[in-house]
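Supplementary Methods, section 5.1.

A reviewer requested that the exact input to the structure prediction be made available. We therefore reproduce it here, unchanged from the version used in the analyses.
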Amino acid sequence: MELHSPHSSDELAERVRRLDIGDRLDILHADEWTERTPTIITGIREDLQVITHTFEFSLVPADPWFAAVVDDDEARYDTAGSELGSPPAPEAEAPDVVDHAELYTNAASVNVPAVGGDWNIAFLTWNTTATVTVPSGWTEIERVTASSSVFAAFIAEAGTTTRTFTFSETSKCSTVVVGVTDSEVIASAAALDPDSDAVREAPGLEVADGPALLLRGFFEKSSTNTSWTPTDGSVVGEQFGTGGGATSLLVTAQDVVAGSVPSATATAGTSSGQGGGISIALYAEPPGASEVYGPEDTSLSVVTTLGPRWTTNPDDLPFDIDVAGERMRVTAISGTGTTQTFTVERSVNGVVKSHPAGVPVQLADPSYTSL
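The structure derived from this sequence is encoded token-by-token as follows.
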């Protein structure tokens, strides 16, 4: 340190002359991204000439640092100005079928069974053109009316207690009720299929958002039908009637992406010339983005605004980082811009906690260039 320099004030010179072995000396901004480098003085040499006055200090790191060694695989150089970015927004998931029930009745009313989930969707087909009184809390989605039978779908919240549908005359009714997770109907369609063959068709849909859950219902008026063979989706439930004129019913489910969804068919064991299908698409809005990483999150967004970016070389991995006292092991890094994605093993040191966006991210065991 040159005390004769015009850049050295009298106050600074006085402070330098008071330094002794064992004192702490901080080097400010050794790198543009390093605010200060604390050191301990282990030796002092003073050179006083006629014009110049110089101090030379022997220093060691004040912290228990690791001195970097060339070609040492364990030496790692830290950056600064890195912090947790906002977690990625959750992706939308198709609603799930969580429960179902089947019922056959021959009466002037049907009490739709209660099933689990957040919403219940009831598919009913009856062997007359009787009008139906829909209980409060239920909304009709679609309906198909044939020459002597009806097929309809209704929806209500799962906790709805009014569940009795009343017909204007005694009817043989097959019912399949499906319980789904929280969602809303975003598209539906119904079609009559009066062909003499046993292939019944549920119409295609335009699905605006996805992934969505697609429920398809098929009905057949033939009282002797005892089987269904669908071309798409998995079978949720089926119900066959008993006696002359009784109708049968099949419900399938599958996940679909947004866009045009084609029609699908199901083949009944026998045909009456009366049948058709209903298609219903349900979508669940994804949860809002969180600003907090939970203890189980293993994918972190890391933003570096000061200093070099983090390495993406697999040969440099794994290494440990410190995030607010929790030690994490980094096993992969992607991205070379200011925002990178870390794949980590959590709680390496036993600390289990959540972390908000903005928390500093640092190497757990950084190495430093020797002085």
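The mean pLDDT is 90. These observations are discussed further in the main text.
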